[in-house]
């Protein structure tokens, strides 16, 4: 049974994203997408546990700390917060050893990392299926819904078929030159799998949605809103 106040953050352990031509674009997790929800959950009195495949320390996508990623003040705050949880980031729990029933919510931050590893990780896929079926709040942000692609139920079908969800849109992905070289686009894959994909009217602005216990955010700007949405669901 879940311990009250415990949240599991599942973070990609990938340090690159393989593009269509086989080149490896340096990547990892997106700073704001981990720091802001972690800060909000902690401020609300929730104990956060970080887990990665193999228990490997996650890699910060340096692009997420560049001038194009946000306002200088926001980037300074994100950098400072990540520094304050440096010890946690250096010693995450191995995802394979995690029992999702020990937590009352599960959250996946994005960055291109999940496109590389979590999208085909059967351990993560099984965890997602189990949490969905449990009814406990499940949140995924930006590229993190790629992890849903690895989920399968006992009959082999996709447990998220028909669920309303969002994720980084094709338009937003293609705003980066390397995004145009993607081997596949997340919006397309989610739609093809059977998701009811939705997005905000304008790219890069905050947009979140919820369907039953599944909560998703479209982009880094949605970090605080998605965290608040999950905390509100926990309070009900």
Description of the molecule:
The structure is a single chain. This protein is 31% helix and 17% strand. The strands form three sheets. A seven-stranded mixed sheet has the order 5-4-1-6-7-11-10, sandwiched between helices. Strands 2-3 form a two-stranded antiparallel ribbon. Strands 8-9 form a two-stranded parallel sheet. Strand 2 and strand 3 form a beta hairpin. Helix 1 packs across helix 2 and helix 1 packs parallel to helix 8. The two termini are 18 Å apart. The protein is α/β, with parallel strands linked by helices and 236 residues long. The protein has eight helices and eleven strands. The chain has one domain: Rossmann fold (3-Layer(aba) Sandwich).
Describe what is shown at a glance:
By secondary structure, this protein is α/β, with parallel strands linked by helices. The protein contains 8 helices and 11 strands.
CATH topology: Rossmann fold
**Main β-sheet, spatial strand arrangement:** 5-4-1-6-7-11-10
- Tell me the fraction of residues in β-strands, as a range: 15-25%
Number of helices: 8
What is the distance, rounded to the nearest whole angstrom, between the alpha carbons of the first and last residues? Answer: 18 Å
Mean pLDDT over the full residue set: 97
The total strand number stands at: 11
Helices and strands, in N-to-C order?
EEEHEHHEEHHEEHHEEEH
Please, what is the oligomeric state? single chain
CATH homology superfamily name: Class I glutamine amidotransferase (GATase) domain
> How many whole angstroms does the radius of gyration measure?
16 Å
CATH architecture: 3-Layer(aba) Sandwich
Structural domain tally: 1
Shape: globular
Name of the CATH first level: Alpha Beta
The biggest beta sheet reads: 7 strands, mixed
């Amino acid at each position: 049974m879940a311990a009250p106040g415990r949240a599991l953050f599942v973070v990609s352990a990938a340090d690159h994203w393989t593009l269509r031509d086989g080149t490896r674009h340096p990547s990892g997790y997106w700073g704001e997408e981990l720091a802001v929800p972690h800060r909000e959950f902690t401020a609300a009195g929730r104990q956060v546990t970080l887990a990665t495949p193999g228990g490997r320390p996650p890699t910060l996508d340096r692009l997420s700390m560049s001038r194009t990623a946000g306002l200088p003040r926001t980037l300074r705050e994100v950098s400072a917060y990540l520094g304050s949880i440096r010890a946690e980031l250096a010693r995450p729990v191995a995802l394979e050893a995690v029992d999702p029933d020990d937590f009352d919510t599960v959250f996946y931050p994005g960055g291109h990392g999940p496109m590389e590893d979590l999208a085909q990780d059967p351990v993560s896929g099984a965890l997602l299926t189990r949490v969905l079926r449990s009814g406990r709040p499940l949140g995924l942000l930006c590229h993190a819904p790629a992890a849903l692609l690895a989920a399968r139920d006992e009959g082999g079908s996709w447990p998220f078929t028909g669920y309303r969800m969002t994720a980084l849109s094709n338009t937003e992905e293609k705003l980066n030159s390397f995004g145009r070289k993607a081997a596949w686009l997340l919006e397309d894959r989610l739609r093809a799998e059977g998701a009811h994909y939705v997005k905000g009217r304008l790219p890069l602005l905050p947009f979140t949605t919820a369907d039953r216990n599944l909560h998703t955010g479209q982009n880094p700007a949605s970090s605080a809103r998605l965290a608040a949405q999950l905390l509100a669901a926990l309070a009900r």
